[in-house]
Write a structure and sequence with these properties.
Helices cover 59% and strands 11% of the residues. It is α/β, with parallel strands linked by helices. It has a 5-stranded parallel sheet with strand order 2-1-3-4-5, sandwiched between helices. The protein starts with a strand and ends with a helix. This is Stage 0 sporulation protein A homolog.
Amino acid sequence: MYHFIFVDDEDYIRELFQEIMDYREFGFELAASFSSAEQALAYIRQGNKVDAVLTDIRMGDLSGIELSEYIYADRPDIAVVIITGYGEFDYAQKAIRCNVFDYLLKPTSYTDLERLFAALKKALDEKKDDTQEEEEESYYVNMIQTLKDYIELNFAGEITLETISGEVGMNPAYLSRFFKQHTGSNFMEYLTAVRIKHAIRLLKDPTIKVYEISSMVGYKSTKHFYKIFKKNTGLTPSSYREKWEEQRNDTGNH
């Protein structure tokens, strides 16, 4: 249910808007009505739930246009509808600068309100869907980064789908699908790539034995490390080290 407030300095107009229709049929609830823009603005700034504001233009010290400007600056998520008389149409165009959702011409009919609230609900529903999509996308990005960070910090240990799923609170099978969907690689492929990356870095240090590197990047079996390394680079660890040292020496001699 969306909540809207109504602002008009004429008592009978406010009473009319309270009784003219059942707003709940359109997915709205009239949360409050005010006789001044100042009161409405204070209500919004108190943190009350407000999805839309219907306001007259000419009211006391603070006009409906000025109220729209404040709302647009503070709460651009709120949809504002300006209510104006026929002679004020040009004046109401200033509301465009405040991103006003729509305007109603006085006298306002039931049909006008039906049209307005149907359009308002559609717009707010779409905005809600967009917000949910953005929140979901943000969640996915953050979760993938969390998983990558965990792998980067723990690749040398016994890291499995089960261990990492326990860390992030996901079912292992779901985590496997989730990771593949959002990275293009399955979990083991990514873990292997990280381990090979660090193995290559360590192989450039001739003081570290290959079997030590195997253990340092998470492989208990040196034989298995050789197999995985060659599968991913086309060279054995020893051959990679020799080739790198040759290239380094050639570069140093030129």
